[in-house]
Amino acid sequence: MALITKAVRGTRDVLPHESQALRYIERTALELAQAYGYAELRTPVFEHTELFERGMGDTTDVVQKEMYTFFDKGGRSVTLRPEGTAGAARACLEHGLLAEALPCKVSYVLRCYRYEKPQAGRYREFSQFGVECFGAATPAADAELIALAAETLATLSVTDTRVEINSIGCPECRKRYLDALRAHFAQRQSELCETCQGRLEKNPMRILDCKSPVCAGIATEAPTVLEYICDACAEHFDGVKRYLDAIALPYEINPRIVRGLDYYTRTVFEILSEFPEAKGLVLAGGGRYDGLVEELGGQHTPSLGFGMGIERVWLQMQALQAPLPEKHLCELYIAAMNSDALQRAAQLAQELRASGWHVEYDIVGRSLKAQMKYADKIHAKNTVVLGEDELKNQRAKLKDMKTGAEELMTLPDFADEFERLMLRRVERDILEGFGDDVTPFPQP
Ligand SMILES: [Zn+2]
Ligand SMILES: [Zn+2]
């Protein structure tokens, strides 16, 4: 029979051989964020459409072209979240977290949705790691945020990256800049795409990240925002650079970064891949958004955050052959020769699994030979065969599949003996130095 349907374009299945790596990335990122004081926040997959229109700006590409928006059965317009910041700000406001001691720091790993052209590392359903820090106005906060993003990639062994920073000023100095931009684009108005013609009056900064090649070409000659920022914004930007220098984090200033969302103020940054095959791919990006909380109906709350594309980071890790934790394998396969032995196998497995060991036995009715073949196929680290003799003597031989070494175990104490044996092996491995398949500590 033919398959009823295939996965929707731009979505992807994460198969078991890959999910372990993705979980490692997500866990590593969330744990490192914890060390910076960020606790995990979980928000709904969909929100009122208005939240994104207000929070991201209704002239952005995301809001105008890329949102999955629909009416639910109650007639409400809801949208699958295209990013994490607006939902995080909404949740913190709604639950009064911003009225407590600030800063309020939250982190998350989310599935997000954008109707974009799928390409390498870009999907319509994608995973994002991100953090948001509400209620911190000083340049030290910006530097700490950039440091966390860089450190996350470094911890995942994602080398070959470049940190670029910029300031896009505040609403005050941006007025002058927008005038300059309007003047620039007005000269070639007729060449701009239809969307950008509409943006020229309302928000000409959006033209800078239009994906149409013609608009992008005209944008390269546009004035840059750094030439227009006010003294207070310039001072803040100098502060950010000073703190980054103090923690020895290398960066470049790229006056062309504007980020795609309306709510950004002052510092914006991107971390890009320098890896030959993925040069210029943005792995992480974010910045300061001092106006967002107010825009959503809260008090003025200077805030900042970043997002990191998990699929892109994973792509880069694969290209770099970054080390991953050892693949999780079955620690014990219990083969059974008859139905009594199979029952004993089930009991033993329950007991060992309760202590956290990965144990399997035959649940498909294979012959002993086929069971051993299967144990081999799943790379079981140890096997034990239970039959009439073993049940009668209450003893069985445990075989180390790597070395072939055998160990006589007593069935009533099997779980304890197994635990002690595994501990002894760990000690032995440490004394003998690490095996070939374990990555040693990095050399100084
Ligand atoms: Zn300013
Ligand atoms: Zn355009």
Indicate the topology.
Layout: H1 16-35, E1 39-40, E2 46-48, H2 49-56, H3 61-66, E3 68-71, E4 77-80, H4 85-94, E5 104-113, E6 125-134, H5 139-155, E7 161-167, H6 171-186, H7 194-202, H8 213-220, H9 231-246, E8 252-253, E9 265-273, E10 282-288, H10 292-295, E11 303-309, H11 310-320, E12 332-336, H12 339-354, E13 359-361, H13 368-377, E14 382-386, H14 388-393, E15 395-400, E16 406-410, H15 414-431
Helix pairs in contact: 1-5, 1-11, 2-4, 5-9
The structure holds zinc ion (2 copies).
Care to count the β-strands?
A: 16
Radius of gyration: 28 Å
Give the class-level CATH name of the largest domain.
Answer: Alpha Beta
Give the name of the CATH architecture of the largest domain. 2-Layer Sandwich
What is the count of structural domains? 2
Number of helices: 15
- The assigned structural class equals alpha+beta
The proportion of strand residues reads 15-25%
Largest sheet: 8 strands, mixed
